[in-house]
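Archive entry: two folds, one per protein. Generate the first.
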Amino acid sequence: MAKRVGVDKWLYFAALVLVVIGLAMVFSASAVMAGERFGSPYYFVLRQSLWAVFGLLAMTLLMRVPYSQYNRPTVVFPVVGVTIILLLAAFFMHDSHNTHRWIRFSVLSFQPSEIAKPALVLFLAWFLQNRMHLMEDWRNTLIPAALPSVIFIALILKEPDLGTALVCAGVTALMLWLAGMHPKYLSYAAGLAAPVLYLMLFAVKWRRDRMLAFVNPESDPLGKGFHIIQSLIAVGSGGFRGVGYMDGRQKLFYLPEPHTDYIFANVSEELGLIGALIVVGLFVFIGWRGMRAAILSKDPFARFLAFGITATILIQAFFNISVVLALVPTKGITLPFVSYGGTSLFMMLALMGVLLNVTREVD
């Protein structure tokens, strides 16, 4: 029985604040570039604002839909099937920068890999809810549980998109661990994945260059190490209070992708350590409230759903911020709610709507 009259308003407010910060920073980071390329400084922020409206509408709708409506095979299997079809369909679209990450229809475009993350969480929550006592049965539990994840990851790696594939792998591992899977199976999976990861990182020249640049960016400051160096310059230039909103210099054609993958660097430069800690603090707060909902949920499906959604947001935020701070090698992955990217923003807000609905059931 539901105990809460409404949703977790603190969680709702934290997501809303991140969206507002994101819109402000997308405009700051992209205005000059948008004016140069498209003749209007508002090109990117207007598109992002439109997606934010759609995403907030989806969040508002989904937080009113009982999460139990998703707990049925007639929902889960079509979602997984459609996701696989969309991931395959991307390979028949015109490539962009030698990648097949987008499906484009006239003015509409989206990344099916963004849909794979909620589809994976939904499947695992449905599949694992009644199998926590069967987690040693690798044939009938572990392999069927991991199969959709393996398919999604293989297709996403083929695009190629290593960052999103790692997010999917991390979410899968954590949800299986929550269900009670013995750590030895994680070790086996890591052993099987290690050769694939090695080939992805070192057999592909541009990824190998990124790895070498991560180890020693100063060896090629205008080439392989350019991204890392410019990002760290932006972060370091901000100091404690920042250089001021709209006054950042690294976004002026120095910092690559300042409105998407490296928007946290722009936040750090313009808003300083204070602004950066506020953004990080909001993600920590979302993590706390999301995990709280998972712990307090008496319904196993709701517990897995809340845990998976929260883990997805936190893992993606961790990767993005770590790339900006040169803690991990460069990957193309957005900062949830903040970076420019319509599909990412919409899906994250939709996931937040589902999570907010789960919070109705806890104290």
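Generate the second and append.
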Amino acid sequence: MVEKARIENTYAEAFDGLYCRVIVTADDEETLMEAAGDATATPSGVIGRLDSGIEKWLSKNETPDKRKGAVLQFWKGLDKGKSIKDLLRRFEKELSYRIRQDILVKPFTTVFNALSVKAEGSIDMMESVGHCGDGFEWEEQLYGRSMIIIPIMVPDFIVERYIGYAYGISGGNFWYMCETRKAVMDAGKRALEVIGQIEGVITPFNICSAGSKPETSFPAIGPTTNHPYCPSLKEKLGYTSKVPENVNYIPEIVINGISMQTVKKAMKLGIEAALNVDGVVKVSAGNYDGKLGRYKIYLRELF
């Protein structure tokens, strides 16, 4: 039973996002983990690139080519003032980097489309990935899908020609305020474990130690530290510090999902798991006074 008094009466500010969902497979588990990990290692939506994450691992019986696999998600926020055409162009470019530089270079890997909901459209991977074959690439029907075969020196890399995209919810989040270092890791691991059981969500930063704010003295950096919530600045900031008593650490878990329902479910289960760990004082969330995100997810309304 969750004590609502330990949940601040606030909201997480969430955003519309564009995402794709792919399956990566490989001959062996080590290569698969490297490909999946490298392709999703740098969540960078705050600087206008892609957020990403590993949604789940798949058995041989769950993939098109009957090899072990992983479901990956890649996300781009809907930038204000930019057309969908421009957004898709940037999305395709960034996605191609992840596939070309992090997956194609791993021996015997394959990429499949894995969108689990009705697609808004699809991205043709021939231009941005297929042409890595320098004009020698070709297309075949394999596994009941249209696949591009790219001849490389350890033959060959295979990617599904059309990767679907859809709209979802990004930036759902909660902060779990901790008294001890141990609570930071124990609560975070428990929260990520239960969130990982939900179909269609990712946590691009996993346990994130650096919540940010939109206002900054250094625009070239992008979003900088959310200084009122930095425990090490509590004494220096005095009455302007927002760090509660007995709180020494404020990690954040960010959640992107294919629907508002999945994001809310993930937040609820993650908060419950965190609050059941010794050393977690209370839970809050990151927001920007409603100035940036379209959606407000009130924490207490989740319970």
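Annotation attached to the second fold: The helical segments are 29-39, 84-103, 125-128, 181-195, 234-237, 260-275. Residues 84-103 form the longest helix (20 residues).
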